[in-house]
């Protein structure tokens, strides 16, 4: 398949699939559509913490912050791709959640509710930063569902061991930053932060099929891009034996 | 099963949300297709690597600044 230049636009992308309220504070009635996880009979431990905060115990909110601040910062950083913005988003999201805690309904998880606030704060921050401009990325690889990935190279066993921690983190950052924003957000929420498909759809205002489609493409594009670093390197002996086999094939023909 | 059909079910296989019958079909395809086996293994590895490596560390002092902001908000009424 030839390379195709595809333009992805974050805001138009999200606007077409979500209501305008996506960039507003999530309305409590919208959250009520999130279903509890099947089989989850015990109340989530966060429920007790939220109750304590509602009762005036601010130290319980500190516990919630310490439990989720890393995740919220990561999500904000993945969306805004800017450290200062991510810091502001994290602070604003936790403050907003604190102020609106009376609107939180226990039939969704506190974490999911918080993530939704952080995603909306991040999108608002992006919009402020890029007033009048659409966020777009020119893509040079199109990997549609159903199409076969181009790079078939197998990876070395434990390929991350070939890199130092800082170098590996840089590779992972660079690789995921190259994904179209609409794919990146879905991958981060679903695969890195552990939201379910339904929660991811609810958080982003997308349909479940749209989340599934983006997730598959995000996973395949990341895989293909990481192959540049992680592919199994051929030893001279392997190369030689491959040349011999090809020679044999040619001779047989 | 073709490679395209396999790929369409790749996420369901990775997320362990396929029926036993579909899983058996997928495994049958994998036994004869190195290409799809590599795709499955390396896609799984991609997810695992991103899950297990922190690529954005929490900036030093941010947690304390947030705590101070919450306490300041609390003084106004909480």
Describe this structure in words.
The complex is a heterodimer of chains A (253) and B (78). Chain A has 253 residues and is mainly α. Chain A has a single domain (6-252), classed as Rna Polymerase Sigma Factor, Chain: A. Helices cover 61% and strands 3% of the residues of chain A. Chain A has helices at 10-17, 28-31, 45-54, 58-80, 83-99, 110-129, 165-177, 181-192, 197-204, 208-230, 236-252, and strands spanning 6-9, 136-139. Chain A has a two-stranded antiparallel sheet with strand order 1-2. The radius of gyration of chain A is 22 Å and the shape is elongated. The two termini of chain A are 28 Å apart. The model of chain A is unreliable at 1-39, 132-146 and 241-253 (pLDDT under 50). Chain B has 78 residues and is mostly helical. Chain B has one domain (3-75): Arc Repressor Mutant, subunit A. Chain B is built from 5 helices and no strands. Chain B is elongated and about 65 Å long. The interface between A and B is large, with 50 and 36 residues.
Q: Tags for this entry?
A:
heterodimer, A: about 250 residues, mainly alpha, Rna Polymerase Sigma Factor, Chain: A, two-stranded antiparallel ribbon, elongated, disordered C terminus, B: about 80 residues, Arc Repressor Mutant, subunit A, about 70% helix
Percent range for β-strand residues of chain B:
under 5%
CATH top level of chain A is Mainly Alpha
And the CATH topology of chain A? Answer: Rna Polymerase Sigma Factor, Chain: A
Radius of gyration of chain B: 23 Å
Estimate percent helicity of chain A: 55-70%
Give the N-to-C terminal Cα separation of chain B: 60 Å
Structural class of chain A: mainly alpha
Oligomerization category of the chains in this entry: heterodimer
Residue fraction in strands of chain A: under 5%
Count of helices of chain A?
Answer: 11
Order of helices and strands of chain A: EHHHHHHEHHHHH
Low-confidence stretches of chain B: none
Which protein chains are joined by the largest interface, and how many residues does each one contribute?
A-B, 50 and 36 residues
Rg of chain A, rounded, reads 22 Å
């Amino acid at each position: 398949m030839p390379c195709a230049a595809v333009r992805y636009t974050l805001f138009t992308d999200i606007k077409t699939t979500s209501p305008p309220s996506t960039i507003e504070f999530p309305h409590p009635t919208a959250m009520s559509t999130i279903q509890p996880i099947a089989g989850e009979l015990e109340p989530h431990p966060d429920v007790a913490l939220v109750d304590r905060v509602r009762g005036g115990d601010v130290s319980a909110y500190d516990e919630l912050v310490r439990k989720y601040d890393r995740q919220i910062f990561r999500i904000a950083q993945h969306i805004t791709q800017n450290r200062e913005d991510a810091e502001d988003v994290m602070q604003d999201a936790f403050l907003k959640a604190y102020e609106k805690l009376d609107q939180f309904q226990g039939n969704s998880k506190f974490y999911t509710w918080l993530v939704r606030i952080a995603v909306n704060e991040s999108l608002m921050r992006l919009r402020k930063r890029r007033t009048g401009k659409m966020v777009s990325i020119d893509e040079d690889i199109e990997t549609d569902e159903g199409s076969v990935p181009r790079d078939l190279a197998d990876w070395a066993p434990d390929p991350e061991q070939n890199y130092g921690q800082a170098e590996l983190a840089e590779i992972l950052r660079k690789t995921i930053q190259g994904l179209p924003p609409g794919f990146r957000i879905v991958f981060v929420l679903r695969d890195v932060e552990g939201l379910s498909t339904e929660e991811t759809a609810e958080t982003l205002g997308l349909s479940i099929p749209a989340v599934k489609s983006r997730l598959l493409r995000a996973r395949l594009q990341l895989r293909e891009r990481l192959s540049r670093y992680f592919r199994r390197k051929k030893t001279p002996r392997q190369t030689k034996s491959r040349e011999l086999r090809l020679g044999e094939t040619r001779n047989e023909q | 099963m073709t490679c395209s059909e396999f790929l369409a079910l790749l996420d369901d296989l990775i997320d362990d949300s396929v029926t036993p019958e579909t899983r058996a079909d997928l495994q049958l395809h994998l036994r004869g297709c190195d290409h799809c086996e590599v795709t499955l293994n390396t896609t799984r590895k991609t997810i695992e690597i991103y899950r297990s490596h922190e690529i954005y560390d929490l900036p030093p002092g941010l947690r304390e600044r947030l705590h101070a902001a919450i306490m300041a908000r609390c003084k106004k009424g909480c």
